[in-house]
Amino acid sequence: MRNVTIDTLLSYIHQFGYLALFFALWLGIVGMPIPDEVVVMTGGMVGALHLLKPLPAFVITYVGVVSGLTLGYVLGRVMGHPVLERLRQKKSMEPYIERSYAMLGRYGSGTLVFSYFLPVVRHLVPYLVGINGMPYRTYALYSYSTGFLWTLGYFMLGYYFGDSIDVISRTVTKYGWYVLALLVAGGLAMLWLRPLRQKAR
């Protein structure tokens, strides 16, 4: 049985088309109650159902993802610590803020890659790197390239497995670190196997 959240999003898509995908992701930075993963997979699903054309739906979805996160970066650069203090007023945000700081201390700019796979942290990290004065070029290099791959992955999941969006979303939310570890392991395996394939040829 499909989640009410997805049905609500679908009703917006019926009314506003591609703009519904964009604003659902762009407004995620202010706490819109629809997880980004669900929005991106729904974009893939409506593409498969031909409610929207797949390629424009993907492009709008990607632009929505990176625009929402870039808004956080800009707010961090322009407004600085007052933004963070307002977030700290919400007690539920404190663990995510601490986790984000811990990741930045350990992985530096690479946190922009890892954070995509962690709900809430994904939106906090752009704030923090903006506050810390990270150059826009550095932010864009890490965030936009990872965002493209992240969006493509979830979009394709929605395109081919739209009926399982709820299950996929819950799994990713609960086991985000494990999903990240599997992706890293898969990438390393491909790098390791490539020379072997070339030798075999």
- E-strand count: 0
Characterize the largest beta sheet: strand count, sense, and whether it forms a barrel: none
Structural class: mainly alpha
Strand content: under 5%
- C-alpha Rg, in Å? 18 Å
Q: Which whole number gives the mean pLDDT?
A: 81
Query: Uncertain spans, ≥5 residues at pLDDT below 50?
Result: none
Tell me the number of structural domains: 1
Topology pattern, helix = H, strand = E: HHHHHHHHHHH
Q: Distance N terminus to C terminus?
A: 49 Å
List the SSEs and their pairings.
Layout: H1 4-16, H2 18-26, H3 36-48, H4 54-79, H5 81-88, H6 94-107, H7 111-114, H8 121-131, H9 136-161, H10 165-174, H11 176-200
What is this structure, in a nutshell?
The protein is mainly alpha-helical. It has helices at 4-16, 18-26, 36-48, 54-79, 81-88, 94-107, 111-114, 121-131, 136-161, 165-174, 176-200.
Would you write up a description of this structure?
The chain has helices at residues 4-16, 18-26, 36-48, 54-79, 81-88, 94-107, 111-114, 121-131, 136-161, 165-174, 176-200. By secondary structure, the chain is an all-alpha fold. It has one domain (4-173). It is globular.
Features:
201 residues, mainly alpha, 11 helices, 0% strand
